[in-house]
């Protein structure tokens, strides 16, 4: 029998996935030993539900606490011949335990599987996103099965990565050798046990088919996993764990060399940065001393050997390690600056962006700030549009030469009216202007690495009223960069003002960005100003002409949003056109033109050639406000475009063919799609075609709801948003 030991302290919402995955194990002869560590969660329901299904036995830690004590108790209570540790926030494939057992025989006392990392619940688990380790695996395969210890160790070259998870053990390996977790430690409880098992195990097997899925917590700030606490919090335990592990390794060369490697990596990669950049003085004090103690008895030859094996220790690194062994702080400090300098220079020549950033920091940032420079950026330099465009336009028209206007553009041929300069995002000129300009106006997030001066004023306009949950209001984050929450938190701290279009956005921005209300300007959206302009009909005629749409044809604008899980890489998304354009053309080709506008993240190009004049590709058209002006009907899904379009009071249809997935798995919404929207949710093409036919009836049916919606979301916009904002943010005197 296998005893699966699960420890639980908090985060009940993760535990269901863990239990479900135990329930689905193909190998059935197991017990689940759940050790509860003084939790505040109400466990009764879940225990009752899974009691029989996973042969659950529940124990409570009484006078002790912590994962080490919980696992020790779990081992004491385990009655199986084998034990397997499973954290309450992780889960398994159905064949994980079976695959591990398959490779074990009479003589073997442990078997390793592999660990894959995910940011998602089981429901949204995506093999492609989780298998980021694969490349690493290929590299590691060369150590493969003839040397399982090396194989295991090479995966984990940081102390906190040495884990007991993803492995099946004979219980006797622990009991015969008295291997236990150190209950005095909150962090780094695993390394000592890992080293001990590797030391005492006589026969270790591996099976790459046995997968353990480790779930990262995407909100380090509010809900960190043990491994996500800051170094400063965990350093005291680091020292204890390291020293105990070295003692345990004893004269086992493979293990002690590996611990040397871990320490050398820590010193040369992490410590140097802490010493240089951290404001915490302990890095020069007690942590430094702790590391010097750890480095005693250090085997420099092992480091040289590792260097030969391609573990990237250059001469400066090795010198620094030597200085640590000598233990003279001033020399350590000097050597660590050298390590950083060597690395920086290396990177500067490898990577142009690093070169530019370095010049920015040391040169541009020291030049005089230009009080009248304003940098504008819209959709990461894709075009001149959105709120920045209309703020720019207002300033150009009313304050012309008072300012120098700089546009960040990333594509050739972006049309920008008025006198201005251009610079390419992340290029040298970009850094020059960013570092010298007093004002930054941006409708998305600025690069994390951008260093701003205290005097810089950053106006974030954002790009829409949120329907889809954002950042801290999201549970799982399914976009290509799962570090989203952490990154956005840092970026938004830099914003001096954030624009909002309505009281609803003001409220949501506070929770989703953890942002202060005082900095939110609920002044309306400048990009919606043209929707209130007296000459908007005239303007619409010109736009239609520019797009080659006959004046007598009505326009249906289809503007869907992007899908978080349909991507090639960060910022590069795919899109599958579900709308039956053929049918629409057959039915309504005489009366309408279909204007297709994909989200700016979507890189897929639509082939519309077969539809002749019925379709117009508006995806690369700069400014969606122009497209609103000429459209008689908007079809969208979960895109915030409808909040803006509603200013025109024209009919809106929602083609939400994947509503359940989008709402329940990918994002979740702030509004009740069924109750709050000013138009119908259409799930099939039949319904879309019908709705177009009956558009007058729909307008009538949704009249009251539209009115309510308009009052709630559009009532701040009045055509003067740009003016209000400029008067508040810029020094116009
Ligand atoms: N947009 C567009 N064309 C589309 C979809 C969107 O031009 N087919 C533009 C619109 O200006 C819209 C903005 O991108 O207001 C945001 O689009 P969403 O589809 O809502 O997507 P997202 O970029 O995820 O922003 O608070 C708003 C949210 O952040 C959503």
Outline the structure in words.
By secondary structure, this protein is α/β, with parallel strands linked by helices. It is 41% helix and 15% strand. The protein is built from 30 helices and 23 strands. The strands form four sheets. An eight-stranded mixed β-sheet has the order 3-2-1-4-7-6-8-5. α21 (536-546) crosses α23 (624-630). The radius of gyration is 30 Å and the shape is globular. The structure holds [cytidine-5'-phosphate] glycerylphosphoric acid ester.
Cα separation of the termini: 80 Å
Helix coverage percent: 40-55%
Question: How many beta-strand elements?
Answer: 23
Rg, Å, rounded:
30 Å
Parts with pLDDT < 50 across at least 5 consecutive residues: 132-145
The tally of helices reads 30
| Spatial strand order of the main sheet | 3-2-1-4-7-6-8-5
Quick tags:
733 residues; single chain; binds [cytidine-5'-phosphate] glycerylphosphoric acid ester; 7-stranded parallel β-sheet; Spore Coat Polysaccharide Biosynthesis Protein SpsA, Chain A; 41% helix; alpha/beta; globular; Rossmann fold
Architecture blueprint of SSEs:
Layout (H helix, E strand, L loop, with lengths): L1 E7 L3 H12 L6 E7 L7 H7 L5 E5 L6 H11 L4 E6 L3 E2 L3 H8 L6 E9 L8 H4 L3 H7 L7 H8 L11 E4 H6 L13 H11 L3 E12 L15 H19 L3 H25 L8 H10 L4 H9 L6 H12 L2 H22 L1 H11 L7 E8 L8 H14 L4 E6 L11 E4 L3 H9 E6 L14 E4 L23 H9 L4 E3 L3 H10 L7 E2 L14 H11 L7 E5 L8 E3 L2 E2 L7 H8 L3 E5 L18 E3 L6 H7 L2 E4 L4 H5 L6 E4 L3 H8 L6 H4 L4 E2 L2 H9 L1 H7 L1 H11 L7 H9 L4
Parallel strand pairs: 1-2, 1-4, 2-3, 6-8, 9-10, 9-12, 10-11, 12-13, 13-14, 14-15, 16-19, 16-21, 19-20, 21-22, 22-23
Antiparallel strand pairs: 4-7, 5-8, 6-7, 17-18
[cytidine-5'-phosphate] glycerylphosphoric acid ester binds next to helix 24.
């Amino acid at each position: 029998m296998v005893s699966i030991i699960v420890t639980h302290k908090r985060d009940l919402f993760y535990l269901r996935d863990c239990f479900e995955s135990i329930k689905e194990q193909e190998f059935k002869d197991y017990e689940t030993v759940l050790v509860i560590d003084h939790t505040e969660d109400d466990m009764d329901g879940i225990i009752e539900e899974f009691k029989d299904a996973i042969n659950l036995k529940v124990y409570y830690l009484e006078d002790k606490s912590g994962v080490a004590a919980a696992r020790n108790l779990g081992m004491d209570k385990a009655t199986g011949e084998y034990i397997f540790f499973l954290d309450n926030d992780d889960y398994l494939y159905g064949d994980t335990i079976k695959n591990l057992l398959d490779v074990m025989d009479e003589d073997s006392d442990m078997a390793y599987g592999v660990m894959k990392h995910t940011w998602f619940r089981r429901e949204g688990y995506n093999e492609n996103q989780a298998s980021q380790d694969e490349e690493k695996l290929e590299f590691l395969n060369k150590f493969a099965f003839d040397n399982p210890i090396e194989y295991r160790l090479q995966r984990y070259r940081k102390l906190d990565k040495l884990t007991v998870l993803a492995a099946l053990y004979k219980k006797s390996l622990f009991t015969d050798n008295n291997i236990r977790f150190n209950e005095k430690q909150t962090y780094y409880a695993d390394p000592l046990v890992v080293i001990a098992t590797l030391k005492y195990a006589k026969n270790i097997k591996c099976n790459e088919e046995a997968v353990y899925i480790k779930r990262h917590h995407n909100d380090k700030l509010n809900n960190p996993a043990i491994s996500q606490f800051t170094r400063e919090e965990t350093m005291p335990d680091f020292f204890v764990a390291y020293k105990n592990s070295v003692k345990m390794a004893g004269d086992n060369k493979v293990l002690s060399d590996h611990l040397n490697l871990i320490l050398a990596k820590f010193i040369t990669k992490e410590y140097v940065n802490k010493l240089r950049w951290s404001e915490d003085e302990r890095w020069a004090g007690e942590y430094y001393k702790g590391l010097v103690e750890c480095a005693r008895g250090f085997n420099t030859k092992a480091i040289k050997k590792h260097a030969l094996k391609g573990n990237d220790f250059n001469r400066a690194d090795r010198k620094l390690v030597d200085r640590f062994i000598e233990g003279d702080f001033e020399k350590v400090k000097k050597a660590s600056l050298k390590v950083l300098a060597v690395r920086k220079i290396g990177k500067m020549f490898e990577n142009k962006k690093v070169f530019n950033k370095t010049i920015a920091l040391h040169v541009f940032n020291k030049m005089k700030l230009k009080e009248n420079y304003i940098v504008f950026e819209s959709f990461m330099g894709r075009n001149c549009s959105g709120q920045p465009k209309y703020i720019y336009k207002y300033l150009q028209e009313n304050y012309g030469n008072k300012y120098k206007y700089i546009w960040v553009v990333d594509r050739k041929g972006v049309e920008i009216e008025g006198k201005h300069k251009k610079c390419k995002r992340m290029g040298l000129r970009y850094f020059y202007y960013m570092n010298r300009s007093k004002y930054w106006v941006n409708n998305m997030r600025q690069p994390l690495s951008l260093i701003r001066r205290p005097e810089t004023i950053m106006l974030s306009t954002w790009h829409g009223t949120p329907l889809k949950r954002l950042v801290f209001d999201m549970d799982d984050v399914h976009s290509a960069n799962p570090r989203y929450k952490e990154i956005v938190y840092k970026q938004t701290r830099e914003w001096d003002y954030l624009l909002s279009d309505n009281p609803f956005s003001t409220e949501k921005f506070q929770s989703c960005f953890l942002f202060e209300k005082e900095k939110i300007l609920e002044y309306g959206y400048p990009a919606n100003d043209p929707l209130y302009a007296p000459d908007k009909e005239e303007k619409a005629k010109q736009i239609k002409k520019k797009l080659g749409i006959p004046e007598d044809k009505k326009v249906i604008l289809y503007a869907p949003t992007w899908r978080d899980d349909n991507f090639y890489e960060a910022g590069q998304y795919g899109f599958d056109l579900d709308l039956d354009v053929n049918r629409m053309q057959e039915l309504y080709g005489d009366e309408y033109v279909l204007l297709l506008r994909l989200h700016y993240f979507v890189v897929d190009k639509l082939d519309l050639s077969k539809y002749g004049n019925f379709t117009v590709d508006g995806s690369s058209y700069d400014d969606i406000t122009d497209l609103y002006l000429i459209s008689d009907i908007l079809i969208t899904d979960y895109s915030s475009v409808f909040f803006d379009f509603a200013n025109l009071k024209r009919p809106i249809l929602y083609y939400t063919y994947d509503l359940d997935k989008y709402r329940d798995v990918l994002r979740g919404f702030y509004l009740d799609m069924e109750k709050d929207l000013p138009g119908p949710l259409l799930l099939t093409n039949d319904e879309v075609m019908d709705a177009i036919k009956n558009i007058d009836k729909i307008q009538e049916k949704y009249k009251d709801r539209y009115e309510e919606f308009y009052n709630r979301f559009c009532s701040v916009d009045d055509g003067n948003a740009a003016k209000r904002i400029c008067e508040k943010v810029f020094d116009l005197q």
